């Protein structure tokens, strides 16, 4: 579900022209979006539809089945539309929706992600919209966070019931880090964010819900740790399923062998470029020693400050080389990634298409794990 949160931007932000079908395409599109939001309110909140604040999807087997059925029905209905002009934006939008349905059904049913990978549920358990996006006053967002935290324990119970042990160790370890990070973030950071917000009753409800969510994340992490001893190394999909992933999830017209060949050729090209760069930067040194010398040049104020300072140079490069236009004056802010999402070394969270103008995107940078050498 985390993987589908941002696709709403593509579905709702295009220009439109008529398609021929049982109902006007604009009506079908609007109906799809509303039904999607009802089934996955986390996506709605990410898009800026805050009437869904605090709600979590039904993660029970029947809820997941309803989710898959929704995409099957949507795909069948969308495929029935025919374009009078194949170049219209609506025709492109229809094709995009067909791919999107294929992608969701692949991960839900063919890859069986809800049963084999606890990270499938990762996006459900992110409080980011409430704590880091100033779409409303703090008391409003605190109440929304309270509803979210109240729903967390039941959603975690549903997640655990769906997962079919033994699970791949790498999935277990990744999700333990997420849940440990969420527990520490809710305990250490979130109370300060909402300090002094709301009425006494609202603050009391927030504190109770937050503590219960912390306990639920700690319990889920402990459950996963107990699963580690019987965890497996069987994370590989196998070639037939990976070929299907390339076609249905990534819409690529190539197979595993072709992809491997592309990768090898690209690796050779990049290695040659690295040799050329090192011959100028550190003549006579091996690639290993050259890269080690570069690694000595650490940013004095850390990676977050360095990323913030880098934005000006990056934007100027894009403008000077006419890579793409930069139409908006908005600049992303830079922040340290929260502890529950530091496996992603650098990522951006953008305000959704329904948010008011002026909300900044946040570019998150994960600092090095202090436990690493």
Labels describing this entry:
373 residues; mainly alpha; 3-stranded mixed beta sheet; 15 helices; disordered N terminus
Structure description:
The protein is mainly α and 373 residues long. 58% of the residues lie in helices and 3% in strands. Helix 2 runs antiparallel to helix 4 (61-79), helix 5 (89-110) packs antiparallel against helix 12 and helix 9 runs antiparallel to helix 11.
State the gist of this model:
The chain has 15 helices and three strands.
Distance between the termini: 33 Å
Class based on secondary structure composition and strand pairing:
mainly alpha
Largest sheet, in brief, is: 3 strands, mixed
Number of helices: 15
Got a strand count? 3
Question: Main sheet: which strands, in order across?
Answer: 1-3-2
Q: Indicate the proportion of strand residues.
A: under 5%
Low-pLDDT parts are 2-6, 8-17
Topology order in helix (H) and strand (E) letters: HHHHHHHHHHHHHHHEEE
SSE blueprint and pairings:
Blueprint: H1 8-12, H2 25-39, H3 41-47, H4 61-79, H5 89-110, H6 113-116, H7 128-131, H8 138-162, H9 169-188, H10 190-193, H11 200-227, H12 239-249, H13 256-281, H14 287-295, H15 303-320, E1 333-336, E2 346-349, E3 362-365
Parallel strand pairs: 1-3
Antiparallel strand pairs: 2-3
Helix pairs in contact: 2-3, 2-4, 4-5, 5-12, 8-11, 9-11
């Amino acid at each position: 579900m985390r993987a589908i949160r941002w696709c709403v931007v593509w579905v709702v932000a295009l220009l439109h022209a008529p398609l021929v079908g049982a109902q006007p395409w604009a009506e079908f599109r609007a109906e799809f979006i509303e039904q999607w939001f009802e089934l996955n309110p986390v996506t709605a909140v990410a898009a800026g539809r805050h009437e869904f604040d605090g709600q979590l999807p039904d993660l029970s087997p029947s809820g997941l089945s309803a989710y898959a059925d929704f995409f099957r029905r949507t795909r069948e209905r969308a495929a029935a539309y025919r374009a009078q002009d194949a170049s219209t934006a609506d025709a492109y939008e229809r094709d995009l929706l067909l791919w999107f349905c294929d992608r969701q059904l692949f991960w839900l049913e063919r890859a069986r992600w809800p049963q084999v990978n606890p990270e499938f549920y990762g996006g459900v358990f992110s409080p980011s919209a409430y704590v880091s996006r100033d779409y409303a006053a703090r008391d409003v967002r605190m109440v929304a966070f309270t509803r979210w935290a109240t729903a967390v324990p039941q959603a975690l119970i549903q997640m655990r019931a769906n997962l079919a042990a033994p699970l791949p160790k790498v999935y277990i370890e990744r999700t333990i880090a997420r849940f440990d990070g969420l527990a520490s973030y809710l305990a250490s950071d979130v109370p300060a964010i909402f300090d002094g917000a709301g009425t006494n009753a609202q603050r009391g409800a927030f504190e109770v819900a937050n503590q219960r969510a912390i306990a639920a994340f700690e319990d889920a992490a402990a459950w996963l740790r107990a699963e580690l001893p019987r965890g497996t190394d069987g994370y590989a999909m196998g070639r037939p399923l990976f070929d299907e992933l390339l076609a249905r999830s990534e819409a690529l017209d190539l197979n595993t062998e072709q992809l491997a060949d592309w990768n090898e050729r690209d690796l050779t090209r990049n290695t040659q470029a690295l040799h050329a760069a090192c011959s100028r930067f550190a003549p006579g040194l091996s690639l290993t020693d050259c890269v080690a010398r570069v690694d000595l040049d650490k940013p004095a104020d850390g990676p977050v400050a360095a990323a913030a300072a880098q934005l000006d140079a990056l934007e100027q490069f894009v403008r000077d080389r006419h890579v793409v236009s930069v139409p908006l004056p908005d600049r992303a802010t830079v922040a340290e990634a929260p502890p529950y999402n530091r496996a992603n070394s650098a990522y951006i969270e953008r305000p959704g298409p329904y948010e008011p103008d002026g909300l900044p995107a946040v570019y998150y940078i994960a600092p090095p794990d202090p436990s690493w050498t």
